[in-house]
Specification:
262 residues, five-stranded antiparallel beta sheet, 37% helix
């Protein structure tokens, strides 16, 4: 099955988290479409492989190399916060695991599906050649400049959304994120090598606690943001691009019904 760059973006958005492992794709008692389910799993399998190998139109995504990245208070929602990263390398994004995926039909006429998911990564490793950090949080300024790496152990995403097949749009998104453990090995924290060990230990405890404490605030920020990005990506994608067999079968059934009625 061929997958284009546009379809790749749409697929990532649609799945939220992806896996090649079998998953329960429909709630008990809800209408189930085995053809659509099979094609979703096939696309997810292709996506995992594509992340590792890349293609003519899609670069390798695992490991992911980012030359420059800058985020500020407008993105993280913390006044005065900023983070600049150069030469960023992110590993193991392709090791995603879907713990639960449920897709149930909510409207037969309009072909709307309710999607619920839980997924995690065993580990996500990020290494940088240079960072410049300033985050004011809990009456404390966390700052520093140097190199190093961090490990996110067991990052997890869960949530739900409604997907409209014929409109190719997402609505009612609710997304939550949390983290089992955070391992920091950043040099130059507080601009002092001697303070880095203490600061890294402090961050290892602080980051998961912050994610728990601000879970609802983060969800309120992420959910509409990801939904807007999703709908922008899906705007130029048709159902036939993602699920050609499902689309052809549906059109055939529709033509047969129209022929019978006439």
């Amino acid at each position: 099955m061929m997958i284009t760059k546009t379809s790749l973006v749409a697929l990532v958005v649609l799945s939220g988290a992806v896996s090649a492992l079998p998953a329960e794709l429909v709630k008990a008692g809800s209408p189930r479409n085995s053809l659509l389910e099979t094609q979703v799993l096939a696309l997810l399998e292709n996506l995992r492989e594509l992340m590792l190998t890349g293609s003519d139109g899609v670069p390798i995504l695992d490991p992911l190399e980012i030359e420059h990245l800058h985020v500020d208070e407008d993105f993280v929602g913390i006044p005065g916060a900023r983070l600049t990263i150069n030469q960023l390398l992110v590993k193991y994004a392709s090791t995603f695991i879907v713990d639960r995926l449920s897709i149930s039909l909510t409207s037969l006429i309009f072909q709307r599906y309710s999607v619920e998911f839980e997924a995690h990564l065993p580990i996500l490793e990020a290494e940088t050649g240079e960072y410049d950090l300033f985050i004011p949080v809990l009456d404390l300024n966390i700052f520093g400049k140097g190199d190093g790496k961090v490990n996110l152990i067991g990052p997890k995403a869960s949530g739900s959304f409604t997907f409209g097949v014929w409109t190719m749009s997402i609505s009612n998104s609710i997304i939550h994120v949390n983290l089992s453990r955070f391992e920091s090995a950043l040099n130059g924290l507080f601009n002092h090598d001697g303070a880095s060990d203490f600061a890294n230990s402090f961050l290892s405890h602080l980051v998961p606690e912050l994610l728990d404490f601000y879970e609802e605030d983060i969800s309120a920020f992420l959910s509409p943001l990801i939904q807007d990005i999703a709908n922008e990506a899906l705007r130029d994608v048709s159902i036939g691009d993602l699920f050609p067999q499902f689309y052809r079968l549906h059109m055939l059934n529709r033509d047969n019904k129209m022929s019978y009625m006439s």
